[in-house]
Amino acid sequence: xxxxxxxxxIEELFQxxxxxxxxxxxxxxxxxxxxxxxxESLGQLAARNTAARGFRSFLGAGxxxxxxxxxxxALISRSEFFxxxxxxxxxxxxxxxxxxxxxxxxxxxxxxxxVANASLYDGSTxxxxxxxxxxxxxxxxxxxxxxxxxxxxxDVTRTYTRNLGIEIDTAGYDTGSGQLKAEGFSLDGTTAALxxxxxxxxxxVEDLAAWSLAAHDQGALLIVVVAEPMSLALLRSPGDCGAxxxxxxxxxxxxxxxxxxxxxxxxxxxxxxxxxMPGRLVGxxxxxxxxxxxxxxxxxREQHIRREKATSNICTNQGLFxxxxxxxxxxxxxxxxxxxxxxNWQKTAYLAGRLEGSRDAGLRFxxxxxxxLVIRLRRPLPSLLARAHAEEMLAGLPLGDYYPELEDCLLTxxxxxxxxxxxxxxxxxxxRS
Length: 433
What we know:
Layout: H1 2-5, H2 10-13, H3 35-47, E1 56-57, H4 71-76, H5 79-82, H6 94-111, E2 115-116, H7 123-138, E3 142-146, H8 151-161, E4 167-171, E5 191-197, H9 208-217, E6 221-226, E7 245-249, E8 265-269, E9 280-286, E10 292-299, H10 319-355, E11 361-363, E12 372-377, H11 381-390, E13 393-394, E14 397-398, E15 409-413, H12 420-432
Parallel strand pairs: 1-13, 3-4, 3-5, 5-6, 6-7
Antiparallel strand pairs: 2-8, 7-8, 9-10, 11-12, 12-15, 14-15
Helix pairs in contact: 6-10, 7-8, 10-12
């Protein structure tokens, strides 16, 4: 290799690397293992995974544990799905294109929007792309983001816009209801968009119709973020409330929680804004004999058009996860999806009822919620988490790292996978910790 590269030795090959940062000693690696030894070692490591021994998780905050029918994994494991790539050639990718088309259709039905796309990474990048889209549409340079939007989503958006000369203002939340606070920020003629999450990071359901009117009065767009899409089966759709762009995370639809991803981003908008939408849009067409087919109708990225005309640099294909979501939604149907959503809300309300009137713990906010609650504790939070762990439960997410004023609070999520016994046990742990 050195001869082919025209180098005499390794030192000459690596001379472009500054000497102070070069490793001058062997890596401290253990000796190699045979395959049986590797399998034995991996088995020992896996046995230390407490989640595999029946831990019940009440974590949420953008990653939700829902029941996924077994046939989803069976179907996506078929080679024609599992090995498919971006459908550049429609004549050999009709199955992949149709799956994406069905996914888009279902997302439109859930969000109440005109068009939806595919192939965004996750909810956070979908929000960032929506902000960039609003800037292009309005020609303005200011964004107002609710402080109750997922902190990670806000961080990703700041990363995307850091060098674009964009002003991003944060609007606080009401300390009583947990919803976006009307005071403390302004929408004006310089505002491109107001970004609101519902249900928000604190579990609260926002009055999207009111915020739509407020944004549109100033010529701004309303961007609605939905991190828990199961709520769309029960709550009034963002489109019906006047949203201009709806983005979110589709992980709840049949995609397991997998140590942080990968996930699938949701993105839907009004038809009049379709040419400013990132990602890919699959459309339906008919040939001369009236036979239905599917094509990439729109793909506004630099690989297909001149870089200066591109609306996005999103370059991967989340088609496999979009397919998982599509299979899940088709399996559940409107009635099944609503039943799951109702179970989420009813079980969360049951837990809230168990805590009502307690002197040791209670709900921090009074506003409407879906399947997440902020619980304020009168006793040290670490002791609660330790007791819950001893009883094989993850009680929730401590909020102090994200909201210092909520350092005595726990964000707890309840879904259809939790039984009444699980909720009773969690309530007992919270009340006696």
